[in-house]
Design goal:
The chain is mainly α. It is built from nine helices and four strands, in the order E-E-H-H-H-H-H-H-E-E-H-H-H. Keywords: Signal.
């Protein structure tokens, strides 16, 4: 999709409370009124799915829907390698599915399979959510990472709000609800996770009122805590698996890189909200590493320290919530910067 046609607008949040009540020491604290944008095609896709396109006419792995968009590409192996060539798309840009790293957890592969072994609504072969994107939320890796992405949206939203960009922050507050909650809703029901739509909506409504951030801090924490509870539903043994956690970060990193590529064209920003999305996902990935530091240290202490430094290097592309006057890095420079980070995550 060309950058000029992207209308998705997102906003930032301070990452110091990115992961709920346990603040990540790394996480520091973007612009439309439209809160009904559908899920990002890369973010919510699953390479093995061929669900029917919904309202937005997108279809993953199959024929393009009404909008004529097609995101092809075969997922890579179950490991960290993201293989496969993207199919031909009406938008001229196809991307491999970042969630392919969780293929080993599909029910058909003998994985946890969402503990129920059944695909939720919008799963394999089913129809997607409002924008027509399917999520195989029966896969615990996809389920868990989409919840982490909710935190990324809230992180950048809060950051923008606190920096005085309240208008820019509004869509970002709404994206966890509009882009992730609905596609995951059937998975919540299957897993017996208590609905938290009301908490997400309360935060959106409060943020719209403006005022000092302290007036909304409780609603923000309530939303984060509800997301945390939903994430805890994934089997503890899997959550404590360093390979699983490294893959979660890897997906967030690849999505952030994709957002940056959509934001920059010919050396200038053409879609600032995408830049902001990328920053939110990077803040989340980095904070997850901090939260899981002991797990990573026990596996490979040297690599953990290298990972922290590699995150700092990659974050140079996103120096602030509001985009700088000109991009700090080109697409190629960002790819070079994130190569080491991906390689380090691949060690686990």
């Amino acid at each position: 999709m060309s950058n000029s046609t992207r209308t998705k607008l997102w906003v930032g949040v301070g990452a110091s409370v990115l992961l709920g009540s346990s603040a990540a020491s790394w996480a520091d604290p973007l612009v439309s009124d439209d809160l009904t944008q559908g899920p990002d095609s890369l973010m919510l896709a699953h390479a093995e799915q061929g669900g029917e396109g919904g309202e937005a006419g997108h279809q993953e792995g199959g024929e393009g829907g009404e909008g004529g968009h097609q995101k092809g590409g075969e997922g890579g192996e179950a490991g960290h390698q993201e293989g496969g060539e993207g199919g031909e798309g009406g938008e001229g840009r196809a991307a491999a599915d970042p969630f392919s790293v969780f293929a080993y957890l599909n029910a058909s592969a003998g994985g946890e399979g969402g503990e129920s072994g059944e695909g939720g609504e919008g799963g394999e072969g089913g129809e997607g959510g409002e924008a027509g994107h399917g999520i195989d939320a029966s896969n615990p890796g996809i389920y868990y990472t989409n919840l982490a992405m909710m935190k990324g949206h809230l992180a950048i939203a809060r950051e923008l709000y606190q920096e005085g960009a309240q208008t820019a922050s509004q869509p970002h507050f709404g994206h966890p609800l509009e882009e992730h909650y609905e596609p995951l809703e059937s998975a919540f029901e299957t897993r017996g996770v208590r609905s938290f739509e009301d908490r997400l909506r309360a935060l959106v409504d409060q943020a719209r009122e403006g005022g000092d951030w302290r007036e909304h801090a409780d609603a923000y924490q309530a939303a984060l805590q509800a997301i945390d509870v939903a994430m805890q539903d994934v089997d503890a043994e899997l959550r404590d698996d360093v390979a699983f956690q490294s893959r979660v970060q890897l997906v967030l990193l690849r999505q952030a890189k994709h957002e940056y590529e959509e934001a920059v064209d010919n050396g200038q920003f053409v879609n600032v909200p995408e830049y902001q999305d990328g920053r939110g996902f990077m803040l989340t990935a980095r904070a997850l590493l901090e939260q899981q530091a002991e797990l990573f240290r026990a596996s490979d202490e040297t690599t953990l320290e290298e990972l922290k430094a590699a995150y700092d290097d990659a974050m140079a592309a996103w120096p602030s919530a509001e985009a700088p006057q000109a991009p700090v890095m080109s697409h190629g420079e960002l790819s070079s910067s994130t190569f080491k980070l991906e390689s380090l995550l691949g060690r686990y």
